[in-house]
């Protein structure tokens, strides 16, 4: 089994009276696609917001080991030290709940997408991907000074950034629309562009909030391929929130199920799908049976046609 | 009944009728408003008695103008949709690629030739006004507009106290030169640095605020600086201001009628206008520097981060962009250019007092940025010309007397006319002269982005 | 068809600048029908839905609703004529409470029947009742989607437009939504025109459906007919793995 990348421990998030996440613990392993599913309002997006620093958790610990493993001893030592992160021969360790959001993206290298797409809609698709490489480019431009003078080192760095952006546009099939404003793109394309933008920050963990929303089954299949390739070819671990079971059950290595902010089940896709608690709270009774019936119906209808 | 539906042709006249009634309502409102202001006017006659004079035709004209304007406005909005128009040009032409640098070069060339041309055509007396008011004054506002454009247009931070940094620059030069005898060329960078420093000082606590709140705090800051300058007499000499600020020199050579003066050194006949011409070139260079830096920054990561910040701050943070320091740099750089402009203003005026740094100045500079189209350098320059040049022109327009009668003095009404023009302009082009955004980088084809997607930012 | 036509689109063209997004679309929706619109990403489905509400406006062609030409009517008048939409991206009022959002939905009726209608949507979405005073912007994605649909229902529309109603909803709730639509259609005769990515559900629910490809209608028929077409199945139903 691979090492623990992110350890969520006893996470609690309260909003004036409402407990959105309640004493939640789970782990995401390096090289895995870990899915977070559950009914509407179960607290999935809230967990993301805690991990990426947009909310400060009411309680709990979020240990993130960019390299190496988040082993209990080191995490405990770091917690006691009061620091945000530690660098050791075994690798970097960060306590995300202590870091501001932009540092989580920059230092811990956690990237995310948003449930209600947040692209820079007045900027082109290409610009969106170049902005994502901000920190690397800032360094290359000597905090703007070299850039202002147009030194060759900066020019090279910029060219590389554009090439990388172009490669990502190619990969998500948007090369032809590179110079169109992101706001002009159809919904499904915007979703993929947002994933590419997150990937351009060079993350260790990619948090995707409903990437398949608004895609039809065929497009979801394409998304599956993309996410698998991000995991396998780019070596980036993924934390995935999704209601489309054709995505979750296809590509996840591990599934965590939330309901009312608590973990109600956890395991492989096959296990979770069969768990009566999950069926009752989320999937709905006889989901499998209905899916099978649906398939048969299509088949039958298809057979009837010439 | 799946056949062709009866297309109801009633939509079009209906729209006209609605527009007519709305325009009529607006006209009636104008008439009511105009009644006490325009229709009735009290005069003191020879014996010191108040006499009421009626001017009904004025009221009628006002109501008519409002009616027609309102109707025209509807005509654009409503019937416009009914036009089955031919496809518009793709996006908006970003000005054909080859033309634009050519045009810019021509403009800069003209600007460099302008004072000499004016001198040659009009002679030293008449050209003074052209070089000074139409040249230097406009260029100061162009520069201020470009500086503020970084803050408001690119980073989307609404700053209503920009004039404070202008004041910091002006007082920096005035005080350093009168008290310590520093030369202008040392003070110029110092003024910029000091203004940037104040920009950071103000920015640190307030940049967490957003939108309206940020606007109000910056407005207050602008006023505080002015009030301090008024009241801290020991430091700033209070409302009396600072007089006898040293004149600008030609890199050490003074513009005086003496053997060591500029004219004598270069073998020219002494003319007071030489200094004015030099000032013109100075502000032209400063403005061009501002423009060059701003254009350059837009293509650097920091500039893209500013624009991204204007579009969506939360997304920026998720990408690891430190929004506080990014906003601070925008604030500091904007302030720095205001500081340069302030130092220039002090050396040009030879005398400054806090009255030059009132809120109305901040408002005018902001108006220039908004009118020009936020983020567009060309638009801001055009707007500065229209605003500063336009209000100056209104002083001269005697033909308006023909329209409004003998006693009409255009200079008196110029702010009114100007305001009206501004309102019409914003109706016609709500996002400013040049509202389309040019991408900072492109892969295949550079196309302007229509304003409908571009956000204005909210702090 | 015996039923009275409620909505007719003839040769509707919509442009974004110089991009032709709808290339002369003909659509008929009769009173009491459920009609679905399916199509790939970027086909122009949302554009069609928004064109019905006059934003963007059709540049050519005619849209007739209940015998009245609404092609150039201002959007608020289209809403008053009895068309309500749950749009793409939800567009709920983020700073207003759930109840206030629903009040906005009912504003076309000037508050008539408000008490009864709000109980009706609360019965469909009990979660909204629990959160009646929470600000719209802090709701979870799925809760916002429920609110957008509920808000559209509050105006007692004669024609309900739904742009991807199942977006962001849990599988159980998706079923609930489709059942509710069927129920409202049956009991109140509500006419529904919906866009769905979940083509299988949509085609089963809808009496008739249209397939939109690149801004033009390429196929139309009953839901069952389209379900049986191999090209429809290949393009919209199967994951293709
Ligand atoms: N800022 C907030 N203030 C108050 N309540 C909030 C806030 N943010 C979220 N909530 C509530 O907390 C609960 C969890 O929300 P969250 O967005 O995490 O749900 P989710 O699991 O992502 O649901 P969905 O699948 O619908 O997106 C919801 O009921 C939501 O209304
Ligand atoms: N505001 C806009 N400006 C310019 N082009 C636009 C705009 N909105 C959409 N488009 C373009 O119009 C076409 C149709 O888009 P639309 O959003 O209607 O597709 P859709 O069928 O709803 O797709 P999806 O399934 O992703 O929601 C796309 O090519 C899109 O890029
Ligand atoms: Mg969510
Ligand atoms: Mg759509």
Entry summary:
Chain A contains 13 helices and eleven strands. Chain A has helices at 44-51, 72-81, 101-108, 125-131, 134-140, 145-149, 152-171, 187-199, 217-232, 245-251, 269-274, 276-283, 287-304, and strands spanning 4-15, 18-29, 33-37, 59-65, 85-88, 91-95, 110-112, 205-209, 237-241, 254-259, 262-267. Chain B has 459 residues and is mostly helical.
Defining key terms:
heterotrimer; B: 459 residues; mainly alpha; ABC transporter involved in vitamin B12 uptake, BtuC; two-stranded antiparallel sheet; 16 helices; 67% helix; 3% strand; C: 241 residues; alpha/beta; four-stranded antiparallel sheet; 37% helix; binds magnesium ion
What is the terminal-to-terminal distance of chain A? 51 Å
Quaternary class: heterotrimer
| Share of residues in strands of chain A | 15-25%
Structural category of chain B: mainly alpha
Distance between the ends of chain B: 56 Å
Number of helices of chain B: 16
Describe the biggest sheet of chain B? 2 strands, antiparallel
Q: Give the helix proportion of chain A (percent range).
A: 40-55%
Q: What sort of overall outline of chain A do the alpha carbons produce when their principal axes are compared?
A: globular
Following the backbone from N to C, one meets helices and strands of chain A in this order, namely EEEHEHEEHEHHHHHEHEHEEHHH
CATH class of the largest domain in chain B: Mainly Alpha
Number of helices of chain A: 13
Largest β sheet strand count, sense and barrel closure of chain A:
6 strands, mixed
Largest interface: A-C, 42 and 46 residues
Strand order across the largest sheet of chain B: 1-2
Q: Averaged pLDDT of chain A, please?
A: 88
Q: Reading side by side through the largest sheet of chain A, how are the strands ordered?
A: 7-8-9-3-10-11
Description:
The complex is a heterotrimer of chains A (306), B (459) and C (241). Chain A is of the alpha/beta class and 306 residues long. Chain A contains 13 helices and eleven strands. Chain A starts with a strand and ends with a helix. Chain B has 459 residues and is mainly α. Helix content of chain B is 67%, strand content 3%. Chain B has 16 helices and four strands. Chain B is globular, with a radius of gyration of 26 Å. Chain B starts with 10 loop residues before the first helix and ends in a 31-residue tail after the last helix. Chain C is α/β, with parallel strands linked by helices and 241 residues long. Chain C contains ten helices and ten strands. Chain C is globular, with a radius of gyration of 17 Å. The chains are: A alpha/beta (306), B mainly alpha (459), C alpha/beta (241). Chains in contact: A-B, A-C, B-C.
